[in-house]
Structures are given as structure tokens and as C-alpha cells.
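Input (Inhibitor I9 domain-containing protein):
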Amino acid sequence: MFKKKSYCIALLIVVLIGGCQPNKSENVYQKEDKVVEKKMHSSAKVDPSIDLSSHQKVSIIIEFKTKPAKVAVLEAKAKGINLTLEEAKRQVEQSHQTFRKLLTVLDENKVSYKIEHTYKTAFNGVSMELPAHEINRLLGSSVISKIYPNKQIQLDPPINPSDQM
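Output:
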């Protein structure tokens, strides 16, 4: 009797697990937001369109885990946490200092890179250019959240109702 119950439970588990299908009705926005999580010591995620084995230079945008100061204050307030704007600004500065220390790893390995812009207000991170395969050296950082390709996107202008006639 015990074996029969165990067999039924095991069979039920197999059916449940085997029957689970991924949601195939993802919308376009969900697909564009998908990123691949690296299985290294980092929780940083890299956009799958970046070929990490390539030796060509790529322009990337690195998003830090620390939110911009005003966003961090608003999120903290929503959670009932008291965070001053000054403290939030210090956290943003600290994230940039930590990232600059990480760049010494690139310097020590004679990796050619260029910081193009730093962002602190609406977005916290940097844009930079470096060989794609060297992105792996950055993934061990606790400050990096996501890495995206830096590309220009152009929207089509809206269609006026008078243009449709």
C-alpha cells in the first residue's frame, strides 16, 4: 500500500512538472526586456544580443543596482523607509566610485576601453566602449545590474487621421 501511494505521488509530480509549458503569449515588450543572467559570481544580466565571445569593440550601457537619488527616495518612501536625498546621492556616488575601482582590473590587463558618458539623474550607470569578450571581467562586480547594447532607436512619427485618407 505504501509503495502504491509513493508511486502515485511520484507519477503526479512527473505529470505536473512535465505538463508545465512556458507562456508562449509573451508580448513584444517582454521579449525586448529579456536578458541572460550570467552564472558566474554575479547577478548582473547581459542582453543576449551582445556576443560575449567577440573581440570587436562594442558600445554598451551599464545600469548600476543603485537607483538614481530621487527614484531611491521615492521608492524608500513607498516602502515606509526614511531616506534623505543627500544619503541617496551619496549612494549613487559610491556606486560610481566602486565601478571606477573595477576599471583597474581592465587597466591591469591592458584592456582598451573608453567611458563615453556617466549617468546619475534619470538613470544610474555609464556608457562605455570595450571589446565584447572583456565584458566578462565586469560581471563579477556587485554594483552592476544590467548591461545593454548602446544603440540608437528611432520611432516612427504618429499617423495623423488626415494622412489616412
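Residues 1-41 have pLDDT under 50 and may be disordered.
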